[in-house]
Design brief:
Blueprint: E1 2-8, H1 11-23, E2 27-33, H2 44-55, E3 65-71, H3 80-93, E4 101-106, E5 113-119, H4 133-148, H5 180-194, H6 200-208, E6 212-215, H7 222-226, E7 230-234, E8 240-246, H8 256-271, H9 274-287, H10 291-300, E9 303-309, E10 315-322, E11 327-330, H11 339-342, E12 380-383, H12 384-391
Helix pairs in contact: 1-2, 3-4
């Protein structure tokens, strides 16, 4: 049994996440403790209002939401009733037994698990301390429940690599196949929590692998000035499609400030993984003869390619998105020259009707060589000029500068006599 704890400030977001799973048939409500009525009589608004009434009793506490999942290995099969008993016992042991809470059984992964949503604000307005909740209360509760219910111990599963909700691979979004907000929420949440990106452009390069892009506005725009951020789906040609979703409307609110904090914290984490990725890429570069062979063999090792080209289609840089180590590096980070890519033959390259996306490598000396390599279809792409505009981290103030005089409004003159 493995427990994942998340604390936050949006009870609506935690509740919506589970209710959307129910709507799509990927979950069902197991238990509504402390709601004083049958499950069938509870709609979304009734559930939300129950929590909100408690949260309003202490508005000074911002982190008032507890959203957790309790996970079991694939071979452990539990009935709904046993899950209810485990959930109730667990909540008592961690000090939330008297709180209203909802238990949802999910069926969207290979292993059985359920989610619990509750608030830390009590009926008298007091706040249940959630600092070190995992270490001080959840871990002892987990071990006690494993013994009491005869469950497989989490420690015995570590060597077998029991993965939680990542058991199902994250797949690229396809516009129209699922609700846009849900697709973006799932992908952005996974990338923010799991991947080690050290800059805003690296964040977007990873998102690009899943047909999502983050846009914080052009220099001088209102969005750039206010630090706003929206996420959009991309079509097969890398163009935005569908309705963009504000970061503030997504569960856990992956705002620009949060992404920037993640970038700063990931600098050190990335550094220790560069050598592994560099060894893999350089070894394959020496042994591969064609671009398609290189892309195929890298893919088998969990590494995908991303190409940045100028407006003429000439390659400017290559990024390696390492999905195994959950990070991304440029060819410069790995001390790999673009000349190493130039020597590769094109090989069998995927055709496309939109050849404006073609990526070519020119020798550093000048004219386009007849055997220049076409990398289209072997990874994701972006134009370097566009990347610089969208991803550059400097924030320009919109509108005229402070020294620019304001235009005086003309007064309307009445009719002359």
């Amino acid at each position: 049994m493995v427990v994942k704890l998340k604390t936050g400030s949006s009870i609506r977001g935690a509740l919506s996440y589970n209710e959307q799973k129910v709507y799509r048939g990927e979950a069902h409500l197991l238990l509504a403790s402390g709601f004083g009525c049958d499950i069938d009589r509870l709609g979304f608004s009734e559930k939300l209002r129950r929590f909100q009434l408690l949260n309003e009793r202490d508005r000074n506490i911002r982190t008032n939401t507890l959203h957790l999942s309790i996970n079991f290995p694939p071979e452990e099969v539990l009935s709904d009733e046993k899950m209810r008993l485990i959930a109730t016992d667990y909540m008592k042991r961690i000090g939330f037994g008297e709180q209203p809470f909802l238990v949802y059984r999910h069926a969207d992964t290979l292993h059985q698990h359920f989610h619990i949503v509750t608030t830390s604000i009590e009926a008298d307005g007091n706040h249940i301390d959630m600092n070190f909740l995992g270490r001080d209360k959840s871990e002892p509760a987990r071990k006690a429940i494993e013994q009491e219910f005869g469950l497989i111990a989490a420690e015995s599963r570590k060597r077998k690599g029991f993965v939680l909700e990542g058991a199902s691979p994250l797949l690229p979004a396809e516009y129209g196949k699922q609700e846009t907000k849900h697709a973006i929420t799932n992908i952005v949440g996974t990338v923010v929590n799991s991947y080690k990106f050290a800059s805003l452009d690296e964040f977007n390069i990873i998102l690009r692998q899943f047909n999502v892009i983050a846009d914080w506005g052009l220099p001088g725009s209102r969005r750039r000035h206010t630090g706003g951020l929206v996420y959009s789906l991309l079509d097969a040609e890398g163009r935005k499609t569908g309705v963009p979703i504000k970061a503030s409307d997504i569960y856990k609110k992956p705002l620009l400030k949060l992404i920037q904090r993640k970038c700063a914290g990931n600098q050190v984490k990335k550094a220790g993984l560069a050598v592994k990725t560099e060894n893999t890429v350089t070894t394959l570069l020496r042994s591969c003869q064609t671009a398609s062979e290189l892309a195929s063999r890298l893919k088998k090792r969990g590494i995908r390619l991303h190409f940045d080209q100028d407006k003429l289609g000439v390659l400017q840089s290559v990024h390696f998105v390492d999905h195994f180590n959950k990070t991304v590096f440029s060819n410069g980070d790995l001390n790999i020259s673009l000349n190493d890519f130039y020597r590769l033959r094109a090989g069998d390259v995927m055709e496309s009707s939109n050849r404006s996306q073609k990526v070519m490598i020119r020798p550093s000396g000048g004219d386009h060589a007849p055997n220049s390599t076409d990398f289209f279809g072997l990874g994701s792409h972006s134009t370097a000029g566009t990347m610089h505009i969208l991803f550059h981290q400097t924030f320009a103030a919109p509108g005229p500068g402070p020294s620019t005089p304001k235009k005086k409004k003309r007064r309307k003159r009445g009719p002359s006599h």
